[in-house]
Design a protein that fits this description.
With 557 residues, this protein is α+β, with helices and mostly antiparallel strands. Helix content is 50%, strand content 8%.
Length: 557
């Protein structure tokens, strides 16, 4: 059997447990779904839940989860209205155990795994999974007897720590350092709600046989432990406090600070622990120093370095989250930025190289990686430092042939979020290009996190879809080619509607003086009279001009 394109039947997401567990639907599972975890009374099940929580607490990765969207189910507790329930295909035992321990959810037939936590020794305790004897730490004043009360109570971390320390005060005075240590451990426990789980979320309309095959492949091979997973585990063993700081950094990077204090939050990148570890691995590989991984990971959490890299991306034109098409490339580029910093490369050159590196990793990753590996090989000639090797690799990968032949071919691939099209939009932002049919600049109207009924800019089909379809062009791959797309202000997009270009262009042309019109067209990879060209000629010519604009921005970095 030929399996369907996996990209078409599932999406891979990093989902916090606090979002994932409430959406689980224990009463619905697709026919023939996995039943390997259906026995809740399996011996040692409570111990497995305890060990899993302990691994998460120390920063180790846990197994992937395969799920499928489903209709709302008759579970006792429902998620927010409109939130689809999730039926578990694989990883059911893991998630059921965590739901029992962290949400207090009872399994079918009653009973659940109850987990206690002793902050003084950083120990998890379990009751054996039958719920008969009550919480395992009930008579221990040093225990939080049921961690479900922590995760579902809504009590602040400060109040949890204060109440716990108040109970311990009866056993004698504690110095400030011990109180601070215990508070950090409670904070780390509550932080498990944001622990990221790798989720394979299947489309509900995917053919059942394809879903079964995909789940079987995931079970047999799994994700494996990537270098990033191993590095995160190594850090958890060597410096658990650093892992705690890493998770705190990533949580803070997802919401604006309440009081304007320094924060990793921004409108370009949302960090995850694995993203930051990947950056640290890249920096360690290229820094030319003998520092350990923990030292490099600590540098990724430096707010000055983090925002310095974000500034480099913004200077390269990638000024909003809508333009970041590859987080993998972005965090690899951050590692490169940190390595350049370790080599004491000046700020201006460092920003330029980081921006060019991100663009290169998006558009020509294989050639760029191959050149960097070759220049790093001992037998490749004179050993040179990373900055010189990076410049050479960029020059070799993104040469004139790439911009003249390979890039127009990349721009011919359909989609509004292809890396090549996003690079074109970023180039427009960097070069200060005007919005098509407007005097406003693209970079000024980018979506920087504002939310309203309408976006300031909308992607417009220069040859509208309905017009093309009425003339026999029905293939979406041809209609959605980047060469047929441009950013326009939403009132113009609404006014154009389904009109062909030779109808709407003359009316819009009347707004501009001749020179202003020609300049606006040129900076949008268009030319006078484009509205009269046949569609195929138009696409080929425009995609070539778009590649030239990307080259101009790249060379101007």
């Amino acid at each position: 059997m030929n399996m369907a394109d996996p990209v078409a039947i599932f999406k891979v997401r990093q989902t916090p447990l606090s979002e994932l567990l409430p959406r689980l639907c224990p009463h619905i599972a697709p026919e023939n779904a996995t039943r390997a975890a259906a026995n809740p009374a399996h011996p040692g099940r409570a111990s497995k839940v305890r060990d899993m929580l302990d691994s998460m607490y120390l920063g180790y990765p846990i197994a992937h989860v395969a799920v499928v969207k489903t209709f709302p189910c008759p579970a006792p507790s429902r998620p927010a209205p409109g939130t689809p329930r999730l039926a578990v295909l694989d990883g059911k035992d893991m998630l059921a155990g965590l739901a029992e321990a962290m949400l207090g959810r009872e399994r079918t037939g009653g009973g659940r795994v109850v987990v206690a936590f002793r902050p003084t020794t950083e120990t998890f305790l379990v009751n054996g999974g039958d719920g008969v004897n009550g919480p395992p730490g009930r008579d221990d004043p040093e225990c939080i007897p049921d961690i479900a009360e922590v995760f579902r109570s809504g009590v602040s971390r400060y109040r949890l720590a204060t109440n716990y320390l108040g109970r311990l005060a009866g056993g004698g005075p504690m110095d400030a350092e011990r109180r601070e240590t215990i508070s950090r451990r409670i904070d780390r426990l509550t932080g498990l709600a944001g622990y990221p789980v790798t989720v394979f979320e299947f489309d509900p309309g995917a053919p059942e046989e394809h879903v079964r095959e995909a789940v079987a492949r995931l079970r047999s091979a799994g994700l494996g432990l990537t270098p990033v997973d191993l590095a995160l585990a190594e850090t958890g063993c060597q410096r658990p406090g650093l892992v705690e700081e890493l998770f705190r950094f990533c949580r803070a990077g997802r919401q604006p600070p309440e009081h304007g204090e320094p924060s990793p939050f921004n409108h370009i990148l949302r960090p995850s622990p694995r993203d930051m570890v990947m950056s640290a691995l890249t920096a360690a590989e290229n820094s030319g120093r003998g520092d350990g991984l923990c030292d490099h990971l600590g540098r990724t959490l430096d707010l000055v370095a983090w925002h310095g890299f974000l500034t480099a991306l913004a200077k390269a034109g990638f000024r909003g989250m809508m333009l970041i098409g590859s987080k993998k490339a972005a965090f690899a580029a951050y590692g490169g930025y940190l390595a350049l910093k370790q080599h004491a490369v000046g700020a201006a050159k460092r920003d330029r190289l980081a921006g060019q590196l991100y663009l290169g990793l998006c558009l020509e990753p294989l050639a760029l990686d191959e050149t960097l590996k070759h220049t790093r090989t001992p037998g490749a000639g004179t050993c040179r430092e990373y900055p010189a090797r990076l410049e050479e690799a960029l020059g070799a990968a993104l040469d004139e042939e790439f911009f003249g032949r390979s890039l127009p071919a990349l721009l011919a691939k359909p989609g509004i979020k292809t890396l090549a099209f996003l690079a074109y939009l970023a180039a427009q932002a960097k070069l200060g290009a005007p919005v098509l049919f407007s005097t406003a600049r693209v970079g000024d109207l980018m979506d920087y996190g504002f939310r309203s009924g309408k976006k300031a800019l909308e992607r417009h089909h220069l040859h509208p879809r309905n017009h093309l379809q009425s003339h026999g062009v029905r293939d979406n791959a041809r209609i959605d080619r980047p060469g047929n797309l441009a950013l326009v202000e939403w009132p113009d997009n609404a006014a154009i509607a389904d009109l062909p270009p030779n109808h709407y262009v003359p009316a819009l042309r009347a707004r501009f003086a001749k020179k202003q019109w020609e300049t606006m067209l040129r900076r949008n990879a268009l030319w006078p009279g484009f509205e009269h060209d046949d569609y195929e000629t138009f696409l080929t010519k425009r995609e070539t001009l778009m590649a030239r604009i990307i080259r101009q921005a790249y060379q101007g970095m």
